Amino acid sequence: MQEVFVEGGLIRKLWTIEAHAYRDHLLRLDPDSRRSRFGGAVSDEMIRVYTATLKSTDTVIHGFFVDGVMRGAADLRLLSPDEAEAAFSVEKAWQSHGVGSALLERCLLAARNRGVTRLHVCCLSENHRMQQLARKFAAELSFDFGTVIGKVENARPTPLSLMQEIVTDGHSFAAACIDYQSRLMKPPGSGTTTLSTLPPAPPAGTASPTAD
Ligand SMILES: CC(C)(COP(=O)(O)OP(=O)(O)OC[C@H]1O[C@@H](n2cnc3c(N)ncnc32)[C@H](O)[C@@H]1OP(=O)(O)O)[C@@H](O)C(=O)NCCC(=O)NCCS
Fold it and tell me: Which residue's CA is the closest to the ligand 1 atom numbered 41?
């Protein structure tokens, strides 16, 4: 079973209507993490443009949420029927606590269930943490100038892997609802719950989860 709760936060898929949460998370990354995430210096404006390209048809974002605020992300972009690119980000205070590993695990399952057999993870050659993380999942790494391209060979989807994703999404959604309600019940001043932290509603009308 995939982990739903990690380090006091919960992992769930992001919905397209929550692109602002992803944008704000990326904008909060400290300079080193931002450089590592994008493989170089990027401006706030570039991050705004990048997150505006979030489309439900070819993107699956998993978010790590603490008190309704997105603190980590796994960004899976489908490139062709069997290839995808993934990128990961965890805010400094939550790094080295297993969040990246849990996000990668969820991302791999989503990739597998969409027929992705080759997953590219690009990172700077000095980014040992990301390389270590990819190696944990048996990545094959090949070096290319200043960047490392990690290729993860993914297994084919099975009825069990599909069921795993459905069940985990259900658990995540239920956990997000309980988390939202418990934050609502906190005394005023002890939390930061606002309407924008409301967990996403199930698929209906225009709202849709990323690439489901
Ligand atoms: C890379 C990143 C996503 C990893 O997330 P994380 O939550 O820190 O990762 P984890 O805690 O799951 O650790 C993964 C592995 O990295 C290694 N690691 C953890 N902390 C480390 C540290 N301080 N130094 C070196 N390696 C470290 C460990 O091998 C660890 O596995 P283990 O705990 O089983 O031994 C995160 O550090 C991050 O956002 N970095 C900035 C952005 C970035 O580099 N993105 C990758 C490019 S796409």
Answer: 33
